[in-house]
Amino acid sequence: MENTQNNNTDIQLSEHFRLSEFTRSATAIRYGIDNQPEIEDIEALQSLCVNVLEPLRRRFGVIRITSGYRSPKLNSVIGGSRTSQHMRGEAADIHVGSLEVARKMFAYIMANIDFDQLLLEMKGGRVHCLHISYTTERVNRRMARSSYQV
């Protein structure tokens, strides 16, 4: 796997996911922020795809990533946590069409998939996204919240 620093190669991370899905950011474009990950971040994204997102896709169909990798600068600009797993390629936010779908995905993940953090993010009383992370750096914590206010 090659490093994407300073080039536009779009790496296939797994059967159904490409690197561009995780690095695309309107905020990065607007502020001229380089949002290309280092090789270790790409490897973490690949593990996230293979171990979490591919099983989800097999069960629920197409998965749309709303936020994936975030460079430290991008994470700072959007007000992300200083310890966000997005900056290490370990996390993705997934678009869910409704609270019903979000709850089904949440339950499926809890019962069938190893994960580090699982948050059903709510904003203004409505479902915002499903945040999921996975790490190979330590044992996954399986920390889950079914109603996390953002």
Structure explained in plain terms:
By secondary structure, the protein is an alpha+beta fold. It has helices spanning 20-23, 26-31, 39-60, 72-77, 99-112, and strands at residues 65-67, 91-94, 117-123, 126-133, 143-149. It has a five-stranded mixed beta sheet with strand order 1-2-4-3-5. Helix content is 35%, strand content 19%. It contains five helices and five strands. Mean pLDDT is 92; it is low at 1-8. The protein starts with 19 loop residues before the first helix and ends with a strand.
Write a compact overview of the structure shown.
By secondary structure, the chain is an alpha+beta fold.
Q: Which characteristics define this entry?
A:
150 residues, alpha+beta, five-stranded mixed sheet, 5 helices
Task: Itemize the secondary structure elements and their pairings.
Blueprint: H1 20-23, H2 26-31, H3 39-60, E1 65-67, H4 72-77, E2 91-94, H5 99-112, E3 117-123, E4 126-133, E5 143-149
Biggest sheet statistics: 5 strands, mixed
Strand content: 15-25%
How confident is the prediction overall: mean pLDDT?
A: 92
Order of helices and strands: HHHEHEHEEE
Low-confidence stretches: 1-8
Please identify the structural class as seen in this structure: alpha+beta
Q: Please report the distance between the alpha carbons of the first and last residues.
A: 35 Å
Strand order of the largest sheet: 1-2-4-3-5
